[in-house]
């Protein structure tokens, strides 16, 4: 890994001092980087951009291709180098004036982000359910490995306002972790709804839980209220999206539930659906 550094800015109030964003070449993450740069500026945080890419495994030799393994490796290395330079140029353009830092890593992007996340308070990636993960970060893998809150942008997003948010509540360790990780962003909102979706017999218990969380947020100076709606697991994401739309929120905060299985990430239904079909920004913690 190599890096170049610039002078850092003053420490950000509220807990986010350094933001890490994955930058891709050819304009693929231009909007994401602009949003990250804007958020860093508003928070007074330092922005670190990471260019990461890795050559795909060499397919079985094709005797008719007319290209040797050595030639293929050299061509891939040259292409990766060009891609990283392109990503750096786009990152520096978006982050101009921020005293930003640039790093590169010739590795799987998700793995590289998880590694560099040790020096960040927040990781920002794009939602990418069906891409080449040798060039783009799998957000699910980043969430599972980073040990940091991960802010995931919906497709095409180039700005994060964060004026209102919905906290997806389930009485678990992951949900508690997510809401405390989100505090620096929630403190900047005008309205937060702590939302639980449950079967009718569990409504009273859910109301007590969400009211506790809303009161805790209120003690942190956040305008929060509780909401419980009836439904099964299959209804949760629709309910969260509907509430976000109703209050004009562009952020959903949730705990991520999952486990590793070889090189795949198996998530619970709610987390998987949120990741596959994000309608607004997601703040996930595991």
Radius of gyration, in angstroms, nearest whole number: 20 Å
N-end to C-end Cα span: 26 Å
- Counted beta strands: 13
Low-confidence stretches are 1-13, 261-267
Order of helices and strands: EEHEHEHEHEEHHEHEHEEEHE
The SS-based structural class is alpha/beta
How much beta, percentage-wise?
A: 15-25%
What proportion of the residues is helical, as a percent range? 25-40%
Largest sheet: 11 strands, mixed
Strand order of the largest sheet: 1-4-3-2-5-6-13-10-7-8-9
Average pLDDT rating: 87
> What best-fitting shape do the alpha-carbon axes yield?
globular
Number of helices: 9
Write the layout of secondary structure elements.
Layout: E1 2-4, E2 18-22, H1 30-43, E3 46-52, H2 69-94, E4 101-105, H3 109-116, E5 122-126, H4 139-146, E6 150-153, E7 164-168, H5 173-181, H6 183-186, E8 191-198, H7 203-219, E9 224-230, H8 236-247, E10 251-255, E11 258-261, E12 264-267, H9 269-276, E13 281-285
Parallel strand pairs: 2-3, 2-5, 3-4, 5-6, 7-8, 7-10, 8-9, 10-13
Antiparallel strand pairs: 1-4, 6-13, 11-12
